Amino acid sequence: MLGLLISCSVKTQELTLIFAILFMMLQLILSGVLLKLENLADKISYFMIGRHAISLFGTSTNLISVLNKTKLHEKLDPSISNLLFFDETKQFFEYQKSHIYCIWTTLFCLSIIFIIIAMESLNSKVMKNE
């Protein structure tokens, strides 16, 4: 859906490719997996599909349980272990049906929003050409 929005918003294929790469990097950075997000960045990240997709992947695979079974946190330096196994991570990958339903609902709503914006962008381009 985000790709559709990008392709409807720019004029040339070259710009579409550039913006798609930029948006993918932005999705990865604001997903909350690479960096601990705070303040405004955390609030913006809730509008990113990447954040919810990664959360859904970790939740559906029960990532916290897998990490606990490997006992990785015991083998790592405590300072690194605290960064990897902080409480926000446990909430991010909470293995419950309600959490999975919430993520699917959020992804569905974001998809609808992006489709509507893309359609409006496409309609405005068609109206300008007529």
Question: Kindly, what is the distance between the CA atoms of the first and last residues, rounded to a whole number of angstroms?
Answer: 26 Å
The strand count comes to: 0
Uncertain stretches of 5 or more adjacent residues: none
Give me the number of helical elements.
9
Based on secondary structure, the structural category is mainly alpha
- Radius of gyration computed on alpha carbons: 18 Å
**How many domains?**
1
Order of helices and strands: HHHHHHHHH
Q: How helix-rich are the residues, as a percent range?
A: over 70%
Q: Percent of residues in beta strands? A: under 5%
- Overall spatial form: elongated
Largest sheet: none
Q: Average the pLDDT over all residues and give the rounded result.
A: 76
Walkthrough of the structure:
- This protein is an all-alpha fold.
- The protein has one domain (2-129).
- The protein is 78% helix and 0% strand.
- The protein contains nine helices and no strands.
- It has helices at residues 2-9, 13-29, 39-45, 49-60, 63-70, 72-75, 78-84, 87-92, 97-129.
- Helix 1 (2-9) packs antiparallel against helix 2 (13-29).
- The longest helix is centred in the last third of the chain and has 33 residues, at 97-129.
- It is elongated and about 65 Å long.
- It starts with a helix and ends with a helix.
- The mean pLDDT is 76.
In terms of topology, how is this protein built?
Elements: H1 2-9, H2 13-29, H3 39-45, H4 49-60, H5 63-70, H6 72-75, H7 78-84, H8 87-92, H9 97-129
